[in-house]
């Protein structure tokens, strides 16, 4: 491998690879029966590859660091034995992490370490040299992005020093790997053996005066014993900016994704009811933690494959997620005398997160006990996240048949808990294995995928948020509807395995209020059922902030009022409404009316103003004191006045409001309306139909809708006329005033409308 280094730095790279038994997901093309969809999709994914390896090393000439150790001084290069002993006197025995413990055990790790605060790198060119090395690391590991190297430790391996096989923990956000720079120091032994997915890379630092090695964090690596001299290294944590987009579009454009597209389309063409697999899991090459798994944290082939899936599935009704899978097996084992009755063993431990020390769990092959008989086993999806790393759900059921690779849990490292003899019970062991995967799920399979868990309401909220996106396809709304119907239907196909909480309900309300993409009307009944399924007051208080925001986002007062009445229907007796719900309805109604004071109001808003008054103890007083002033501010809106007066007369006529007092309010608003409105805005239904037709052929549909919202039809004027006759008195003379105003505006009415008057 050639590298581009500063004039004073020259690198020669050695890629010594040794074939090892085990799963190798990156080194070959799989030949499969083209008739098998599962194999076709597996081949299509695994044939997506980029240049890059899991680990590499390089000899570097004339790399200058200018090392200065506090309490010792400038360190000569090559390192002398005298100064090595001086630095060791300032160092501490390096610990290692095992599970949640931090241990110093020289039988596992025997080396000395100095923290960055104990030394300095004073050469002014060192940072530039390091940046060039990082560029070469990115190229070799197949990373399309800028790498940040953060100094971690200085390590000194004397004769006999070593470190058993282990993996590195994630010590800083965005960390993906480790860089080791071997400074000039004569030594023998100390080779680093790196293993991943059945491949090995051997780094022999003793071969070169100066060298470096780098690898991904989940690569198992072992430092063999130093046989003479001192192995002297600087270790760096390698990280990427998590906000940096990867990979670039140019990289994707070089990849042939047609086979993947064909496999996905073939899968979607099958009848959903007859699909052998509703969704698939594809095992990734690298391991990831729950804290770090996301698209931007993926490495090498994982990254480009998931990015390709994302691009292809974005054009189809298919979603892509990331998931950690778990397999647990428990059973009896052959008795093996051991000083401990109960202990845990780790093989390339992968349960770590952020760590305070250099490395994570040791590999202890001798301590892992084979199960004689499996008495209990379990497969689960530990966690499922979207590509941004946000948790969607946890604890889903897992069927191994849905994993694209066969025997995916075979020949991988795991964790063991061993229990010796207890009374009459023989020794037992429990094994845990974990895999990182990408999940491919058609939209019509999402309800089945998410219903495999009865504890997390997150899938409902996740789907609801997806439905709120401007380009959300209809298939997502269908999936959300199906998931909601199962949540409220314990006898359904999926059973009562979908739960809801306040956050999920708030998101569903937001979707239900979206006029462009309406859910099934039954969703409102489901929400009310959820409210009544527990302490109504407590549940309403939990969701009221979120649903208030959703209601106030309605495009007009009529839509907002409809949402309020759907959530809290107006009963004959207000006492039948729970206090928290009634308080919310009243407060939200007031906010809606206050916000509408400066909006354009039309025919859909007038009836809502009357209806909202019935949440209050004295509806007529509310109409007179709160609503009438708003009507007065919009007295030029013919449609608002006509629709409001019509609903007001209906409520008085059927006894919902006291007749005489209501007629007084009616007359007051009618008088103002007759003198202020422009009757030339009245249209027949025929004219409305024609206007809508013209709008479809180039006119502004939105502008037309605004104009029509404040217009009244001839039929509505007829209804108004009947109301005026009913409310009229000799003193008010409403009918005569109405006819006179209509006559005066007649010259402005279009000729086509005259026959309809």
TrEMBL record:
Residues 154-237 form the Prolyl 4-hydroxylase alpha subunit Fe(2+) 2OG dioxygenase domain. Gene3D superfamilies: q2cbj1_9rhob like domain. It comes from the Eukaryota. InterPro entries: Pro_4_hyd_alph_FE2OG_OXY. This is Prolyl 4-hydroxylase alpha subunit Fe(2+) 2OG dioxygenase domain-containing protein. It comes from Fusarium oligoseptatum.
